[in-house]
Amino acid sequence: MTDSAVEAAKRAAAQQAVKDHFDPNSTHVGIGSGTTIVYVVEAIKERSTNPNILFVPTGYQSRQLVINAGLQPISFDTLPDNVMLDVAFDGADEVDAELNCIKGGGACLFQEKLVAERAKKFVCVADYRKRQDRLLTVWPTIPIEVAPLSQRKVVAALKLLGSTNPTLRTTLLEKSGPLKTDQDFFIVDAPFKTLLTTADVKAGKGNGDGSDGTWEVNAISKAIKGLTGVLEVGIFSGLSGPEAQALRDENKSSKATAGGQRPVAVYFGMADGSVKLRTVEGEQ
Ligand SMILES: O=C[C@H](O)[C@H](O)[C@H](O)COP(=O)(O)O
């Protein structure tokens, strides 16, 4: 496939996602990071007739994208406590059959997770290369944002969890040193064996607790998040949107936010120009 076919797939997925989930009467919309989100902003711009919508970006690149499109950005930390985003759109590096995602290929996972968790619905847009049944099928590593001071300690702890060669991400020009996130933190990319889904564990395909070298998505996310020095893990799993809200309403908040945020819908642009929609009900 040519680069232009991949770009066409991203654009087609973005157009469909925005058509289905962007309401021009929204008040607050989250905008993620990466190369696919560019097409989401393009599609919103085409449809939006409302200059009062506030867009919450997930980092520097995302904020520039919003500004360049002539849309109005608002910083996450200025949102009043009672305001939920009507919708948040973002890209993904890989998505499994249960809609768990790996994100952070562009080092933006922390703010992306804040925004995803604040949205009534979180929608992901990706090209066909990201559409898998299990995480770490093609995408090789879990991106992890760590405090610089703790980097060596976290790398050692990741090895104990079974990661073969966790690596500090450097800038493209390696001699310039470690890449810094928007929080001035580092990214460690940790390879693990392909992750089990919750259904895999229920079906007895493994314990998923790492004891045999294989982890289930939520279990590895929780284990990494528990390491001192880790700000956030690039696994977006756990309940999302109204499901999460229902649990919060029942005062089971720890369950509602466990592991981060899973999208309610993922749009994959396919190589043949079509778009596949994956939800918890399945794929169409
Ligand atoms: O850190 C970057 C973000 O998580 C991106 O959303 C993710 O890497 C997907 O990016 P792209 O749309 O460029 O594939």
Automatic annotation (TrEMBL):
It catalyses: aldehydo-D-ribose 5-phosphate = D-ribulose 5-phosphate. Pathway: Carbohydrate degradation; pentose phosphate pathway; D-ribose 5-phosphate from D-ribulose 5-phosphate (non-oxidative stage): step 1/1. Keywords: Isomerase. One of its GO terms (biological process) is D-ribose metabolic process. InterPro entries: NagB/RpiA_transferase-like, Ribose5P_isomerase_type_A. One of its GO terms (cellular component) is cytoplasm. The keyword Magnesium does not apply. It comes from the Eukaryota. Its EC number is 5.3.1.6. One of its GO terms (molecular function) is ribose-5-phosphate isomerase activity. Belongs to the ribose 5-phosphate isomerase family. PANTHER family: RIBOSE-5-PHOSPHATE ISOMERASE (PTHR11934:SF0). This is Ribose-5-phosphate isomerase.
